[in-house]
Amino acid sequence: MRWSQKVKQRDGKCAICQTPKNLTAHHLYSKSRYPMFSEDLNNGITLCQKHHQEFHDQCGNQAGFGFAKWLLNQQRVSRSHKDKVFQRVCELQEKLEELQRKRWNHNKSSSFSQTKKRFVLLQTSVSENEFDTFQSLCQALSLTPQQALHRLVHDEGQAWLKKEKVRETLLSLA
């Protein structure tokens, strides 16, 4: 059985609208950019064709946390399902970081090469001074920049989940 069939069989319906029709398996981390996850079932989620297209129209090919952030904004998705997907994304991100550490021969230096630095500066609105400050903070905390960014996104997601729980509690009391 192919990966997409296994994902669709596991989920059985669209994660957004719950329809069992016109289903497609979506990679949380794209198979072309992250081939090591291409057959990992935790890297898949089932969407109907409409919502799969909607995600790509709104977010392009954002991986992992890009999908999780999009999912957090979907009103029809239960909080528990959002939590499960967010947990899967975090687990995949941890696997990715572990693979990167192994590939870099356990080099825990957080310094970026000039090529990587130029790429980040071109792809973001971060100034060179802001980037250097961020890199210095990473070194002081003994974190790679990837680990620091992962923690920031994870903390943002956890804060959102807590805010949602408070909101749901207040709504149930009203």
UniProtKB/TrEMBL annotation:
It comes from the Bacteria. Pfam families: HNH_2 (PF13391). CDD domains: HNHc. Keywords: Endonuclease, Hydrolase, Nuclease. Residues 2-53 form the HNH nuclease domain. The keyword Transcription regulation does not apply. One of its GO terms (molecular function) is endonuclease activity. This is HNH endonuclease. The lineage of its organism: Bacteria, Bacillati, Bacillota, Bacilli, Bacillales.
